[in-house]
Amino acid sequence: MAAFRSHSNGLILRSALPGRARWDMPALFRKPLLAEALQDALVGLPGFLRVRVASVTGRVLVYYDQTQLTLTQAGTVIADTFAGLGKNIVKTLLDRDTSAPGDGTVGPTTRIHQLLGRTFDADLVELIAAAEREAETTFYKPLANSTGHTALRVFNPLAIGLMMSVALSGGFPPLAALGLTSKYAQMAVFGGTFLLGKTLESVLEDRKSSSWNDYAVMVEQALRLKTFRHLHSLDMGTLSEHSSDQLMNFFHGDIAKIRGFLQYTPPTMWDKALNIIAGGTIMMVVSPIALLLALIPLPLLVQLSKKHQAEAGENFEKVAAEIEDLNRVLSANMGGMATVKSFAAEAREIASLQALAQQLRESESVAAHENSRFNALSTYTLTMGICMPLVYSCFALMSGSMSMVGFLIQTSMIPVVLTSATGLEQANYQYQDAKYAAKRLHALLALQAKIHDGHRALEARGIGGELVFENVTFGYDDTPVLRDISLTIPANQTYAVVGTTGSGKSTLIKLLQRFYDVDGGRITLDGVDLRELHLKNLREAVGLVSQDTYLFNATIYENVLYGRPDATREEVLAACEAAEMASFVAEEPLGYDTVIGERGQRLSGGQRQRISIARTILKNPPIFILDEATSAVDNKTEAAIQRSVNRIAANRTTIIIAHRLSSVIHADQINVLEEGRFVESGSHDALLARDGVYAHLWRLQTEARQLESEVG
Ligand SMILES: Nc1ncnc2c1ncn2[C@@H]1O[C@H](COP(=O)(O)OP(=O)(O)OP(=O)(O)O)[C@@H](O)[C@H]1O
């Protein structure tokens, strides 16, 4: 579709495909905060499927739903949203944006980023530019080292050509004109310069490699930090859409690929470009005809390269996706080795890995074949490029229209120029790799947290602990999980929630910690809606012990200390004592300094739970939640955990979620949840007297216990 211009609303349409359009928005150019604010405001608007606002290029890219919006409407919404950001916000963001580089003018770095963003992949350039800003680094130093190194690499073959011309002909006339007539003196000058040049070349080669490496590593670190920070800003709902393997792949795969690209491609491309410019200029001075002949195959080479890039890009995406699949299977197998073995499913797993590996091998073979075909063709084309000017120069030398000096310089420059136009495959490979990595990272960084931080601070010490669920309704998707439930938990009371599997008990706790927000109704703490509280304050106020509490591959002591990192050793040991850990810690050869393995796998379920309880005791939150913590332990451990829980619950609001009713009989109130609704509430005795759902469950469990003890 033809691009049209519309200056009236500050947007200039650059390209439009069905459902996808890109506009220039000069007001956003080099205004990262403003761009971010506009992007935040556009994401989630009706009809907007994906939005990317790039300050580096000053462009807005939108994928929109054509059934809801026309192109013109999408443009109008963008302009209106920008206008609706509010003059004060825009001014504040503008001030902050422009204050960053100093004087508010467009600096050379930004200009270069903008140019690069329009020439190369905008996602990639923007990511690198953002990382540069964060790491406070630029590519200037490595670029300067590269330039010096390449200049010397061009000069050195030139010096050899000049030495040969002095040896084979009567000397170098410009030097003779300066009074240096002796061939030996001229040779000494060129030889000395050559030696000096070579020495400097190797010094700069070292500097070039190390400065590009330092730059790439700094960008990588900044990207890693940015991604890590962003992941932590996302809510559980958004995070649960990605597997942990996918999340790890952003760090191990994508960010590492961008570093690999920066270490190799820019220095290589810059090196080659300078070689072509410097060598081409020298050839032009010596013989423009020879240069023209050398350039004849270039259009063909460009065509070949374009075709190759398109095919390589497709192959590349396919291979990358297949590697991801393969890694996912590998990682799932490594994590679930015990399950695979217990189902004797090794052969099945090996077969599925083999099938994926075979598919990957075939795709890689297609990609490699395409690469080698391109290499062979481009080398052949270049050889033709070397032959033609060489033959011409020989004729010119024989006919006397080219001097020996000119001939030797010419022949030393032809390979410099033409070899620089080849060997781009690896650089292109790295570029494609980084381009797709940047695309994935951009999609991740564009995800918006659905949970927004509140503005009210609440000191943990000042919290009373009254919790109220008021007509709360919630569903993970369209299916409701909690249906209009209401419950008041007075401060310092212990309330239990019991009910069948899937009735929504854990969901209540997730809402309480604002991992998700309620769809309807509200939850209050001391009368304040949770959505108004600072998330950090809220989560500091809640201590959760659940079956899947994460334990780190560190010592027992360090795992408990995680509850309050500034606690003293005495406080940690007191928390461990309150959690009745002494007996099992004493059996460990290194006591509290025993490393417990990944996720605490060297310990039993009951031992892990006691560490988790000690961690929460150390945290000392005003609200304590126990989610299914005793379901997987024996009676003795359950009794130990129960004693610890009673100690914690004594002076704080406590919610116990349990299947085993024996662990909740002392609760001030027991609430029975069925299909997202509270169906019974009361004390243990009151509920037994009522002879409803709870009494039925109690009888079932009591009979089961009796049977167990008789069999035992
Ligand atoms: N992240 C999620 N995404 C989608 N659905 C979910 C998610 N977590 C839970 N559910 C669904 O919500 C319902 C309630 O789950 P919840 O974990 O709250 O139940 P529960 O009462 O704690 O069950 P259990 O006693 O087995 O732990 C279930 O149907 C479950 O499948």
UniProtKB/TrEMBL annotation:
Domain ABC transporter intervals: 467-700
Family annotation (PROSITE patterns): ABC_TM1F (PS50929), ABC_TRANSPORTER_1 (PS00211), ABC_TRANSPORTER_2 (PS50893)
Keyword Iron-sulfur: no
This protein's UniProt keywords: ATP-binding, Membrane, Nucleotide-binding, Transmembrane, Transmembrane helix, Transport
A Pfam family of this chain: ABC_tran
Primary localization: membrane
Protein name according to UniProt: ABC transporter ATP-binding protein
